[in-house]
Write a structure and sequence with these properties.
six-stranded mixed beta barrel, 24 helices
Length: about 850
């Protein structure tokens, strides 16, 4: 309907705009534009509006009118969405995906980095770490930022802004002696640990001055509620009989409250005083050493004391400690306590989480750009309505408010649906994902939302509304009042094509920033599954026992070690057994610093493994030159081929010396390179040292056997139990280490594939929608061209070139950004270059094919219409 109104009707429109409220005119014009009312009805309504005079509004009346406008906008937006279910679904689903996934990921990060500790008044707790330089040489057990017990006592005694200060040392593994011994992990704590946390044992007295704090006191322990239930059947009499930890009888003095298993990410099964360190580990005699980093400090602020005041006071204490150690300078890190408070670990996790959040944020941006394009197309279709509203006096601010209200309803609906769905999915999937990772079952990670997650979702929703709603609202509110009376009014919106093209280009660029990393991770997954580590891992088992503890003094440990090793070697089906301090393809690395030559050469860092002579033959690692060191040959070493080429290029390294720990060692053999660690690339410098029996307390051996794994594991456990029933033996196939690497690659590649598929689908939908709209707006041009003799294929190629131009620009931008950011993935790209050509060629090719297909379908459909019928309809 083209309202070509005479001059006197326009006068009525202007007069009505001065007399009637915007809400009244909005309802009138909605009825008229929808075609449900005639022009005579419109004239009568406008005349009535002119007759009603409006007096100046008071402040309360203005507020009431504003609320009325908001209600009307919400009601109108709901009616509009209800009448256009296809549009509503196309707009809400992408936003639900984007906001839902991002909220779910944030809930996991929140549980690790920001959620308050599970103790009373957690906001009053602060964690304390230190950075220092200079001073005496310092030993580190855990992290350099930790403290010694003497340092802890100094801070505890001098701090006035803290009502209490405690210390703890995380992740101590001991053997719980029972009919079936098991390894459990706990923490060593100072006696005021539970007092500072304001926790009381549900059973027992806990740590008291009588049973805790003296180095010669009988060892005591507080069990976690979970261990009490699982291992002791919630026996209330467990306090009346000792338990055995690392072969030593220990008295249980309390059961921790239900649900509390420490204040770190790793769940603790027990809590023991720090004074029991030498009880569980006789070889560790550093409890009173002031130059050992091994305990974390956590304090509770005094009433009215701020974190800044605590930091200032403790910094003064730190300066006094520095004065006692020449050359030492200390800076403290005092922050509100969280589950992940260790600075190094927190920085690593937040860095990784920021990469993940950025990737999921790209999906939300693509979804927002998609919805913005839909809204632009919808606004073009409503140009007549918008122009009429402007002509009757509606302000541009009022129109923007109405359009943003519609965008807000779309965003809120998407946020609610997406957050509920993905919150449920993440809570279901996270435990299963953790169970598939080594040690994941003891990690305190979940996706349970809290108030922080709620406000994150609210903020993300508001930001999304501005991203996808503001630009279409600004464009739509610039309606041309004069063009609404013309028959060719629809063509007036063609000038917004550059904006829709820009949004498509942005979608494609963001999509490429996900597709290329997904391609790199897929290549890494393939490399992990086809990896040849350089040794034969089939039919090889890893067998480990722990001889740490008071039952095995140094001499006794060597005897037990030899006896156990001989028993394993004598088992039926065992072909060979070899010692190794680092199991191939296990996490982490062991490094040492040595000098090339007689002690005056250059100092170099090398990865090192201490192995027995049978190690190389058991794994089928060929000796390229020289020989294998013999059993007991302590001054010999072996190097890999790449190490020999690196430090002795063009020379024969056999017989040359290296100096390690002031001891000269001679190179006796060169072994072929092999993948010994889970590092992304094979280590170029690797050194093998001869193992000495009885020097290690936690022993791992490799055994090649003809038995099936289950039978071999059962035989090893039975033989170990006959030697000592309190020993815990772990048996795993060597191939399981590669399986862990493959699992990690599968998880990262799977997440990347999911993200890239979502992005690719959204981008394809965006291209299809824009091209469909673009073609529909140029039907007259198509008809004219074809009526004048233009070939349908030529017209189609013309449209494809025009519509795919922003796609090509977006691809170029996305490739450039992905190339600059590819190095961030290097730590998880096992055996693959961050600039792998297959990923950088395959991903753009896939994007181009999908975009071309999305653009081809609507243009092909447009070319099949009859030119004369198109011209007649126009």
């Amino acid at each position: 309907m083209a309202p070509n109104h005479p001059f006197w009707i326009r006068i009525l429109l202007r007069a009505a705009a001065l007399r009637a409220s915007e809400a009244e005119l909005g309802d009138v014009m909605e009825e008229f534009v929808a075609g449900r009312r005639t022009s005579f009805w419109l004239i009568s309504q406008l005349t009535s509006s002119v007759r009603r005079r409006r007096s100046p509004l008071t402040l309360s009346e203005r507020g009431a009118e504003m609320l009325s406008n908001v209600r009307n906008d919400i009601r109108y937006a709901l009616r509009t969405l209800w009448r256009s279910p296809g549009f509503a679904l196309a707009a809400i689903v992408p936003i639900a995906l984007g906001i839902g996934i991002n909220t779910g990921i944030f809930s996991i990060l929140n549980s690790v980095a920001w959620r308050p500790l599970p103790v009373p008044e957690p906001d009053a707790l602060v964690s304390i770490y230190q950075n220092f330089r200079g001073g005496p040489r310092r030993m580190v057990y855990g992290a350099r930022a930790l403290f010694s017990i003497p340092e802890y006592r100094t801070y505890r005694d001098e701090a006035q802004t803290l009502s209490g200060l405690m210390a703890y040392s995380r992740e101590w593994t001991v053997t719980l002696g029972r009919e079936a011994p098991q390894e459990i992990q706990g923490i060593l704590v100072t006696c005021n640990y539970f007092d500072v946390l304001k926790l009381t044992p549900v059973i027992g007295t806990g740590f008291t001055p009588v049973n805790c704090g003296k180095l010669d006191a009988p060892p005591v322990v507080v069990l976690s509620h979970a261990l009490w239930n699982d291992a002791f059947g919630a026996d209330p009499h467990v306090l009346q009989k000792p338990i055995v930890l690392n072969g030593r009888e220990v008295t249980v003095v309390g059961i921790a409250p239900a649900g509390f298993d420490g204040v770190d990410m790793a769940k603790a099964a027990f809590f023991a005083p720090t004074t029991t360190l030498e009880v569980f580990r006789p070889e560790q005699t550093f409890h009173e050493n002031p130059n050992v980093s091994w305990v974390t400090l956590m304090g509770r602020r005094s009433e009215n004391a701020t974190v800044a005041q605590v930091r200032a006071e403790l910094s003064l204490v730190a300066s006094r400690i520095d004065q006692q150690q020449a050359g030492r300078a200390t800076s403290l890190i005092v922050e509100p306590a969280t589950t992940l408070s260790l600075p190094v670990a927190r920085q690593n996790v937040l860095t990784g989480a920021s990469i993940v959040m950025a990737a999921f944020g790209l999906v939300l941006l693509i979804a927002a750009a998609n919805v913005a394009n839909i809204l632009l197309a919808r606004a073009a279709g409503r140009s007549r309505e918008i122009a009429i509203r402007l002509s009757v006096g509606a302000t541009r601010r009022r129109l923007i408010q109405q359009l943003l209200t519609e965008s807000a309803i779309i965003a809120v609906a998407g946020a609610v649906c997406g957050s509920l769905l993905f919150s449920w999915l993440f809570q279901l999937l996270v435990p299963r994902l953790l169970a598939s990772l080594p040690g994941g079952e003891t990690a305190r990670v979940d996706a349970i939302p809290d108030l922080t997650v709620f406000w994150f979702a609210v903020g993300l929703t508001c930001l999304t509304v501005l991203v996808f709603g503001l630009v279409p609202a600004l464009q739509a509110s610039r309606g041309n009042v004069h063009s609404v009376t013309k028959q060719d009014a629809p063509a007036a919106t063609g000038g917004r094509g550059w904006l829709r093209g820009s949004l498509i280009g942005a979608q494609v660029a963001l999509c490429m920033m996900l597709l290329i990393p997904a391609g790199l991770l897929a290549r890494a997954l393939y490399a992990a599954h086809t990896l040849d580590p350089g040794f034969d891992q089939h039919d090889v088992a890893v067998v480990s026992i722990d001889l740490r503890g008071p039952r095995y003094e140094k001499g006794n440990a060597a005897i037990v070690h030899d006896q156990w090793l001989e028993r394993v070697r004598a088992l039926p089906g065992v072909e060979s057994v070899a010692l190794a301090s680092r199991i191939p393809l296990s996490p982490g690395r062991s490094q040492t610093t040595l000098r090339i030559g007689d002690g005056e050469g250059a100092a170099v860092d090398m990865d090192v493994n201490t192995v027995s002579p049978d190690f190389f033959s058991l794994l089928g690692m060929p000796i390229v030159r020289g020989r294998v060191f013999t059993d007991g040959e302590i001054d010999a070493v072996m190097v890999t081929e790449s190490t020999a080429r690196r430090y002795w290029p063009g020379q024969n390294p056999l017989g040359r010396t290296v100096t390690l720990d002031n001891q000269r060692r001679q190179i006796v053999g060169i072994v072929r390179d092999a993948q010994m660690s889970q590092a992304p690339e094979a280590v170029s410098s690797y050194l093998y040292l001869p193992a000495m029996r009885g020097t290690q307390r936690r022993i791992s051996v490799l055994a090649r056997t003809r038995l099936d794994f289950a039978g071999f594991a059962s035989a090893v456990r039975a033989e170990t139990s006959r030697l000592d029933s309190n020993l815990v033996v772990n048996v795993q196939p060597l191939a399981a280490n590669l399986g862990v690497l493959q699992t990690l690659s599968q998880i990262t590649a799977g997440v990347a594939a999911l993200l890239s598929l979502l992005a690719l689908g959204l981008a394809a939908i965006g291209v299809y929608g824009v091209v469909s709209y673009f073609v529909s707006r140029r039907r007259r041009e198509v008809g004219v061209r074809m009526a004048l003799g233009a070939d349908a294929g030529d017209v189609q190629r013309l449209f494809l070139r025009q519509t795919l131009r922003p796609v090509a620009v977006g691809m170029c931008i996305g490739i450039a950004v992905a190339a600059s950011a590819a190095r961030l993935l290097q730590s998880v790209l096992f055996g693959v270059s961050p600039f792998d050509p297959i990923a950088f060629i395959g991903a753009p090719a896939l994007m181009l094919v999908i975009a071309a297909a999305a653009a081809f379908l609507p243009t092909r459909r447009a070319m099949q219409v009859d030119p004369m019928s198109v011209l007649r309809s126009e």
